[in-house]
Amino acid sequence: MAELRTNVSAMDPVWDQITDEARAAVEDEPLIGGFVHACILHHKTIDKALSYRIAAKLASNEMSMVVVREIVDEAYAASPDLIDAARADLVAVYERDPACHRLVQPILYFKGYQAVQAYRVGHFLWEQGHRDLAYFFQMRVSEIFGVDIHPAAKIGKGIMIDHAHSIVIGETAVVGDNVSMLHSVTLGGTGKEEQDRHPKIGDGVLIGAGAKVLGNIQIGHCSRIAAGSVVLEDVPPCKTVAGIPARIVGEAGCDQPAISMNHMLGKNEAF
To answer: What is the pTM of this model?
Structure first.
């Protein structure tokens, strides 16, 4: 009589694809074998790989990799939503960034993805009342990645930050789901007021490189903000704004600008 298996492994096609890609990378480039094994192939699940990657990046003489990884592992165990968000962010980068050809790339190489995952742990710590620990994560993310996100900021799932250089997201900012932004974006305040003072970004918004969105204003869902714009007033849903100060220059151009990553006003005209 056949023996019944009682400990069937859970299926995870995303993680299976990541590990397959990692093995192929090692075969193609044996010199990175140790790096890829440490970051991917040594681990059985995506959460363990991410906790290792975050810890390896944020560790310093001030806090060891072992301690950072324990913090991340405990956060993932307490809040599975963090892993759900990490998966959604991974798919967002894979689908929207033309330079991303494999799921393994953001985990290994893309600092925007890595910074957002580290922020998510910091935000969890902030929500749990571990404010100084959350500030430590913010400090290290800023130092290592050049991405300064206050741990109190609220950011949805399916986020892509492309290039991720000089990103600033303030304390009372809110970012919806499926938002894409490029480098040098600021979601900041307009003065030294201490209350609700940062932008509220709707779902599906595309924010171009170097854009500054300032003050407690609403950016409607599925809108576009042109590169280099300074936005000081509310933006209706499904509109494109451009300029300093920004003004409405047309429709968003498609239903999901953050997913299509369309930066064009017309057929041959960039905004």
So the answer is: 0.92
